[in-house]
Design a protein that fits this description.
Blueprint (H helix, E strand, L loop, with lengths): L2 H10 L9 H25 L7 E6 H5 L8 E7 L6 H17 L4 E7 H10 L1 H7 L3 E5 L1 H17 L1 H19 L17 H12 L9 H20 L8 H11 L4 H35 L9 E4 L2 E4 L2 E4 L11 H12 L5 H10 L9 H11 L5 H11 L1 H5 L20 H13 L8 H10 L11 H16 L3 H12 L3 H8 L5 H10 L4 H18 L6 H22 L17 H8 L4 E7 L2 E9 L4 H11 L3 E10 L2 E9 L8 H12 L4 H12 L16 E4 L8 E8 L4 H11 L2 E7 L2 E2 L2 E10 L7 H16 L1
Helix pairs in contact: 2-4, 5-6, 5-7, 8-12, 9-12, 10-11, 10-12, 11-12, 13-15, 13-16, 18-19, 18-24, 19-21, 19-24, 20-21, 22-25, 23-25, 24-25, 27-28, 27-29, 27-30, 30-31
Length: 789
């Protein structure tokens, strides 16, 4: 480590990172050190000579004074054409750059005249934004001032063309880097709500078209800078990405209790900056268009929206007739009007709503409850309006419990949002199903509160969430009967999808668990189905696939049929068996001559593969291996035996987009049954290359498999649930193990989350019957050994 680098790190440690105000003081000291060191290098390069019309200037973090301990230096040697000759300028620049490189400091440098600064700013948007911060370091200050003022003048004069260009650039960057608020490994600089957006804010105000928010935005900026500084110190590298490996060390350095608290603060700060940059960019563009079109004095154009609100420059604003001081439901009315109109509430309106509207009484009046339900059902416009209300502090006045889940990270590969944003996305998804349920108001409330229990310290967020939801609903004034339904939905919001993907839908015990979860109510079952879809689709595409949707629909239909039969006083009917059990003469004839009968039915990205073959030991393992070898992801398998025939249903997905070919599967099954294991060799090769297929899953999860018998899941089979680190070939290996144990697999339900398998197997003795306790214990031990092998 060079002396300069060591000195910069020493400066980073001059005050505890967790001390109040340490960050700005530390960054100011780093900037003073950098300017002082560069001025010393300048004097040494000049060697006592005075260079007229030549100056050293800084841009980027050094110019702004917000650089981190190991941030690079962005320097420009600005010179006047009538000053040093070209070769002299180049030689002089080398005298500056080489000592910086020798000191181990990362350097981005250029040599330009004032005219060249102007030209590059005209041609390159990012260069223009950077040169707006051009700051004198040493030498002739007039030449730096000339370059900076020229670039700033051009920036303001050309705002009509530059601002749309900036908008496109910002949107593209956000799409590429994602939302900082919702990333587990965020890029603190480039992501939406990151440090780069603060530069955008400064550039927008430099165009003299709008002001930018201060206060919370500046505090949020400082918090993200603090985290960036901590990354530099704990990694010893000048980078901006907060990786999982650095979470704990950065959290400890900054004085957080744990890394979740760190990520929560990062998320909150990013949301504040993102909301500010989005709104400021929108207002700057509106102001620019107004200035372009204006002839004479411009009067505000106000379009009435109702309830004292007006549309002005693409935002909803309160008019002079709105009586904030006496009407506590005005914030709800304003939010509803804005959300339905698909426009945000203006910052001034949000501030007035937060500061001057009285609190709602406890419990809420009926008009407030109705407005709140309508707000939740307003559709996609709710997201931006809710965000503004939340940042202004209005939401926590309505729902104090919201604070505990605000910006809470979700360390789950399925989820793409923080807890609070996921809840709002689920509400929006549920709003598209309001015509499919009898009580859309209860669906909206359940969607809003279903994950409200994901608070620090909880062990079961569904149970905790039900308790919290009950408190919230009492405050809102929901009736006892309706409140019990919503509380039940919150407590059971995972039941339907868990049963559908992990249990046999034809098992009476599975349906009994479902009907008991909804309290025997068809209405509640209907609401649970809609909530399940809203929750999963809001989580992300990995959570609501065609396969999962099909399983949920199938179990929902079975549960509905059971409840309807109960209402009619009839005994519950057995679930309709797989249609493949109705064996066609053609299928039976094909199997009779030793050829499997294979059909494929595609549904979107999922494929159902029906196989009828002679029953034999190891058929499950062989089929799993063949599907893996052909590159398919197995999601579930249901297997039945009738008259010596195996009638199997497999649901698979294809990462590469291929469709299973029934002739190929049938041919390979014949080959494997005859002892030719070559078709399975492709699966072995996939394991060797780490390909991700049905059982070729990612490696790197914690070791130590667990398997247990779920005693209440079936009266006719032994149900074994397996949790293990995912790896290539696991499903096939488990199948081979069960065959070696002389067990028959009746059904298998496969799921993978964040590198972990959660697979359920319904097994019986050959010929039928549950396993004796000793046999079950032996099977569990064998499965664990297989998973950990």
């Amino acid at each position: 480590m060079t002396d300069v680098t060591a000195r910069r790190l020493d400066l980073a440690a001059t005050r505890s990172f967790a001390a109040p105000g340490a960050g700005p003081i530390r960054r100011r000291a780093l900037a003073e050190f950098g300017f002082g060191w560069l001025q010393q290098l300048w004097r040494e390069a000049c060697a006592g000579r005075r260079h007229e019309g030549v100056a050293l200037a800084a841009v980027g973090s050094l110019a702004r004074g917000d650089g981190g301990p190991l941030s690079d230096y962005d320097l420009v040697l600005v010179h006047h054409p009538r000053g040093l000759a070209g070769k002299e300028v180049a030689a002089f620049a080398d005298k500056l750059w080489y000592p910086i490189w020798d000191a181990g400091v990362r350097l981005d440098h250029s040599v330009r005249t004032v005219a060249e600064c102007r030209a590059v700013a005209t041609d390159d948007l990012s260069a223009a934004v950077g040169l707006l911060d051009l700051t004198h370091v040493a030498g002739d200050a007039d030449v730096v001032n000339a370059a900076r003022s020229t670039v700033a003048h051009d920036w303001r004069a050309n705002a009509r063309t530059r601002l749309p260009e900036m908008q496109e650039s910002v949107i593209a960057r956000h799409a590429r880097q994602g939302d900082l608020a919702h990333l587990i490994e965020p890029d603190l600089k480039e992501a939406h709500g990151g440090l780069r957006d603060m530069s955008v804010l400064r550039a927008l105000t430099s165009a003299w078209l709008t002001d930018r928010p201060h206060g919370e935005v500046d505090l949020a900026h400082e918090r993200i800078l603090d985290v960036r500084d901590a990354i530099h110190v704990v990694t010893g590298r000048g980078r901006d990405r907060l990786t999982r490996d650095d979470h704990d060390a950065c959290a400890a350095l900054l004085g957080y209790t744990d890394s979740d608290d760190l990520l929560t603060d990062v998320s909150t700060s990013a949301r504040t900056i993102a909301y500010a940059v989005d709104g400021t960019l929108r207002r700057a563009l509106q102001s620019q268009r107004a200035r372009t079109l204006r002839v004479g004095p411009r009067r505000p154009q106000l379009s009435p929206l109702g309830y004292g609100l007006y549309r002005h420059d693409g935002e909803a604003v309160l008019g002079p007739s709105a009586d904030l001081s006496s009407d506590p439901v005005i914030p709800l009315r304003a939010a509803l009007v804005a959300a339905r109109g698909g426009i945000p509430l203006s910052p001034t309106t949000l501030r007035n709503l937060a500061e001057h509207s009285p609190a709602l009484p406890d419990p809420w009046p009926e008009v407030a409850r109705n407005l709140f339900a309508d707000l939740l059902a307003s559709g996609p416009g709710l997201v931006n309006v809710w965000e503004g209300l939340d940042l202004a502090g209005v939401i926590e006045r309505w729902i104090p419990e919201w604070v505990a889940v605000r910006s809470r990270p979700q360390r789950n590969a399925v989820h793409r949002h923080t807890v609070d944003r996921h809840l709002i996305e689920a509400v929006v998804a549920a709003s598209g199903m309001v015509r499919d349920v009898a009580r859309p108001d209860l669906l909206m409330l359940a969607a809003l509160l279903h994950d409200i229990g994901k608070v620090p310290g909880t062990t079961d967020h569904s149970v905790t969430g039900a308790q919290i939801a009950d408190t919230v609903l009492q405050r809102i004034g929901v009736t006892d009967a309706d409140r019990s339904v919503v509380v039940r939905l919150v407590r059971e919001h995972l039941t339907l999808v868990d049963l559908a993907t992990r249990r046999d839908p034809e098992e009476p015990a599975t349906i009994a668990i479902l009907t008991d979860a909804v309290g025997g109510s068809l209405t509640t079952l209907e609401l649970l189905r809609a909530l399940t879809e809203a929750d999963a689709s809001a989580a992300g595409p990995k959570a609501w696939t065609d396969w999962r949707a099909g399983l949920v629909a199938r179990l929902y239909a079975a549960g509905r049929a059971a409840l309807e039969a109960g209402d009619r006083g009839e005994a519950p009917r057995a679930v309709e068996p797989l249609d493949t059990l109705r064996l066609s003469e053609e299928a039976v004839g094909r199997v009779a001559v030793g050829e499997p009968w294979v059909t494929v039915t595609s549904l979107g990205g999922a494929h159902r593969v029906d196989i009828i073959d002679r029953d034999r030991a190891g058929l499950f393992a062989d089929t799993a291996g063949l599907l893996a070898a052909q590159g398919f992801v197995v999601r579930s398998a249901t297997l039945r035996t009738t008259d010596g025939l195996a009638v199997d249903e497999w649901w698979v997905e294809s990462p590469g987009g291929e469709t299973p070919l029934s002739p190929l599967i049938a041919r390979d099954l014949v080959r494997v049954a005859s002892g030719d294991r070559a078709p399975l060799g492709r699966a072995s090769r996939r394991r060797g290359t780490g390909a991700t297929t049905s059982t070729s899953r990612s490696v790197g999860s914690p070791s130590g498999a667990r398997a247990l018998v779920v005693t209440s899941a079936s009266d006719t089979a032994t149900v074994i649930e397996v949790r293990a680190s995912d790896r290539p070939g696991l499903l096939q290996d488990i199948g081979i193990t069960l065959a070696r144990a002389a067990l028959s697999v009746r059904s298998a339900h496969i799921a993978t989350y964040a590198g972990q398998t959660l697979d359920t197997f319904y097994v019986t003795e050959f010929g039928g019957g549950r396993l004796a306790p000793a046999r079950a214990a032996q099977a569990v031990a064998m499965i664990i050994d297989t998973c950990d092998a």
